[in-house]
């Protein structure tokens, strides 16, 4: 009998996931498969990428690689690939159709309308297809987004027909990229969830208002286990994330309502196992809760901030679920902060080229803020131009920090930003760090 320890297959394992699963490499040896959509030559695998063939190849390698579980938090391809692989191998995993139902944003709206209409917003499929003229009968303003996308690509509020026409006017290269990002999902969805319709379309939604939050949790044997709620704050006057803060101020009634809506929706789509993230608005003036979307995977960007505050490592939770075990039995680590945040640095000037911190600056950051976690996203001029077309800004860095309380966290962020040579997304006197100030609108999905 083999004494080789079981190995875990982690799909599309980059950025937060690489660090998060790396924390558990000794106890959960793992192997990686997939490619990075944002780096060359890794992303040269995108043309012709086929999820079925990808999973077939992995399934043929599973026995000799001693893989006994699979997990992924990658929105574009990984979550669906992991569900397909788990189904193929008979491993614990989120049902394939549940992943499809969450990621097909039009289908998800239709399901939500059936089970929790009070938490839905008005929606319709945009009548024209890619490359066709924008219809004349659309009511503005409207929030437009692709039926299937990730990272909030091409999602924003448009105020008139001209703005919408400009948004959906794609050049040949853009159309090529969009179609190849969506087509792997499309092939599986048309075969497994045909009632949802094609994902090569745009969805129109009635703009919703309020403060934006994320409910994080997991399903185990059909039972919802909430983990916490993160506040998503925007740069003032924009629809672009400035920071994600945990814990946050949200009335208990709103928390209970969010959990109830999640229970109804996830049960309706057959989501009975795995981590999930529900993005939603809460309007403090009216108490109305409006679902933005369901992500059928962990929001990896939040794992570190839960670990700092609650001693819960969401990546360890994902590993336990991949083996069919109950994460509630895990011991908690000692918290290191009373509040933590993921701070997002971004430019709103297409001509700007924010400098990346030098090795000396990064060493100084590590010395003065040993708890910091820094990600830098340098890009070419062409990549930045595409970001502005698709995302309205350029995200060039992310910094994670903890603090005793919101005031200390704001001070630490300001000091750390000065070391990096970047404008601080959190001033010393910013009272909004607890998420109680300004009404906001949706744009991006947390990673």
What does this structure look like?
The chain has helices at 16-22, 51-65, 78-89, 96-103, 105-115, 161-167, 172-192, 252-268, 303-310, 314-322, 359-368, 381-391, 406-420, and strands spanning 7-11, 30-33, 67-71, 123-125, 142-146, 156-158, 202-205, 211-220, 223-234, 241-246, 274-282, 289-295, 339-347, 373-376, 394-403. The chain has an 8-stranded antiparallel β-sheet, sandwiched between helices. The chain has 447 residues and is α+β, with helices and mostly antiparallel strands. It folds into 3 domains: 7-91, 3-Layer(aba) Sandwich (Rossmann fold); 122-205, Dna Ligase, domain 1 (2-Layer Sandwich), CATH 3.30.1490; 211-434, 2-Layer Sandwich (D-amino Acid Aminotransferase, Chain A, domain 1), CATH 3.30.470. A hairpin with a 6-residue loop joins strand 9 and strand 10 (241-246). It has 13 helices and 15 strands. The chain is globular.
What's the gist of this structure?
This protein is α+β, with helices and mostly antiparallel strands and 447 residues long.
Relative strand content: 15-25%
CATH class of the largest domain: Alpha Beta
Structural class: alpha+beta
Mean pLDDT: 91
Output the radius of gyration: 21 Å
CATH topology of the largest domain: D-amino Acid Aminotransferase, Chain A, domain 1
Binned, the helix content reads 25-40%
Which properties best describe this structure?
447 residues; alpha+beta; Rossmann fold; Dna Ligase, domain 1; D-amino Acid Aminotransferase, Chain A, domain 1; 8-stranded antiparallel sheet; 4-stranded antiparallel sheet; 13 helices; 34% helix
